[in-house]
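Final report, closing paragraph on structural work. Over the funding period we assembled a curated collection of sequence-structure pairs, and we close with a single example.
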Amino acid sequence: MLKNLKPLIWAMMLAPLGWLIWLGFNGGMGAEPISFMNRYLGDWAIRILIVSIAVTPTSQIFKLKSIMKYRRLVGLFCFFYAFLHLTSYVAIDQFFDFKAIWNDIIKRNYITVGMVSFVILLSLAVTSPKTMVKKLGGKRWRLLHKCVYLAAPLVGFHFVMMRKGFQLEPLIYSAIIASLLGFRLIRYLIKSHKT
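Its predicted structure, as stored:
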């Protein structure tokens, strides 16, 4: 049943982009389309990030080892939406005004955190091909890719800070991230205690 989920994953991961394009052509982005598009892409980046870090716990809890082979693909789609999120900010919102962008990075904490998160995700995306495992060595590669557990809370923090005032959605997403990371930490501590 889980032999080849790649076509389904591709379809599911590209559906949000297809919907955004449809909204763009049909005037469905509201009064502030640039802001809508940027937030929409960011929302999907964090949703897919949550899915990517949920793969391992899901595999362990439900004994579905076969889904582990799709974790990399889901992670790359997370980066894809994060890249589009950043590109919409740089190209459409700021019109490549790099001085203004730099000032934003320095002055706005949520953008600073967002940029740090993106750099981590970029390093993971660049080193995701199997050839990079050989170049870096398995131990270094695994250590680097554990940085996703640093990027995830930073992305959650970025989301909370970006939405000014008390808003439930970013808090829910951050709680899910914390739960998934907590699950992994508990598993690690149990495993360490046994050894």
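The chain has a mean pLDDT of 93. Residues 6-194 form one domain. We thank the funder for supporting this effort.
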